[in-house]
Amino acid sequence: MTRENGLGLLLVLLLPVVGASRPGTVVRLNKEVLSYAAEAGKAPLQRALQVTVPNFLDRSGEALQPTRIQILNVHLPHLHLKLIAGFGIRLSAAANFTLKIFHVPEPLHLMLPMELLVDAPVDQCSIGTPVVSISDCFSFFDEAIVLDDRNRAAPALLVPLQKHIQAVLQSKLCLRVSNVVQSLNVHLGTLIGLSRVGPESQVRYSMINAPTITRDYISLDVNAILFLLGRPIMLPEVNTSFVLPHHVGTRGAMVTVGLSQDLFDSALLLLQKAGVLNMDITGQLKSDDNILNTSVLGQLIPEVARQFPEPMALVLKVRLGAMPTVTLHTNNATLQLQPFVEVLAPASNSAFQSLFSLNVVVNLSLQLFVSGVRLRGTTSVLGNVQITMASSNVGFIDMEKVQILMDTVFERPLLDHLNALLGLGIALPHVVNLHYISPEIFVYEGYVVVSSALLYQR
Predict the structure, then answer these.
(1) What string of H, E and C letters represents the secondary structure of the chain?
(2) pTM for the structure as a whole
């Protein structure tokens, strides 16, 4: 970004940068963000207003005398942002221009007060990103103040000099603001970039309609599409869309992000199709705390002891055929996995033979958190792992005894594997350099809310 993107800083923080229809996400940037945006944007906007003023031609003498003018400083003692319902943003600012007039015999220092008023509608562009434009821009000037009492210019010089400076600033300032907005729109285009989910998967966000703007917030719907090997992950079509209720999350938060059930279903479907939820749990004979071997299993199943008189390491091949399901109830998020587990032992030909297989149901508590711009999760097992026999090549099996073994050798590797995946997280929709700060997570019936402050860092 260029250094003139000061207004961009203001407007990025005011624009909703996330949302969706199916999978559904709705983002509300609340009016509480305006004070932060105004304070953070003062310095960049001051730089944007520091324009070049051409020489003034002094006609008071017998010959035209060109006088050089330099803006030394632009100070914004006041900057205010306001949401205009059904429209966008109104920016009002008070600016003081400190100027040096290279007048003969001594330079002259002036301060020129000005008020700036900018109306910026917020809409949707054709590529699916927010777009900001300038509908009105006005600058109003007070009389110039001579800062050096020892060098007072004659009114005959001061009046035309001020008119010259005002005319130049009025012609340039709004154009400079318009240029900043155009560079901002390029920055907002990063909303539609692909964000990595896994080694072969990404998520892409884009707007599906124009933002809803009230006096209290800007709300935006964005379509979230997850890709695996370049192909989109699609949920079945439905006729309903996600609507975020009012007054959810933390009161006074800068941003309120609502994430519907659909977003979680899409993410889990992607993980299943990618195969990353599958895993192999391998026993180690020389490990004191790993009991996944034929010697221990043979104590529970006589046929295993007969076939394997010498201890051999076992392998649990865990495969997810059914799609994982997440359930969202008020203050409670749960995840259910239904893996098919095959217990394998080494065969004489260096291959593996199947001893038996199990249908497993695992219920997990799901805790969500946001780090940077990524929604991440961690899980813990709820109750006992439920197992039923699918097939056996070693005769009768006492399922109560196998249950104890599964609780010992299956739960911890499964949790470690699953939490490593969920810890990577999925990027929430965002533009470059915008982060969620001190977020809070709320679980409601059928959706999750993230309430957060925002931080813009270059």
Answers:
(1) CCCCCHHHHHHHHHCCCCEEECCEEEEEEECCHHHHHHHHHHHHHHHHCCCCCCCEEECCCCCCEEECEEEEEEEEEEEEEEEECCCEEEEEEEEEEEEEECCCCCCEEEEEEEEEEEEEEEEECCCCCEEECCCEEEEEECCCEECCCCCCCCHHHHHHHHHHHHHHHHHHHHHHHHHHHHHHHHHHHHHHCCEEEECCEEEEEEECCCCEECCCEEEEEEEEEEEECCEEECCCCCCCCCCCCCCCCCCCCCEEEEEEHHHHHHHHHHHHHHCCCCEEEECCCCCCCCCCEHHHHHCCCHHHHHHCCCCCECEEEEEECCCCEEEEECCEEEEEECEEEEEEEECCCCCEEEEEEEEEEEEEEEEEEEECCEEEEEEEECCCCEEEEEEECCCCCCHHHHHHHHHHHCHHHHHHHHHHHHHHCEECCCCCCEEEEEEEEEEECCEEEEEEEEEECC
(2) 0.84
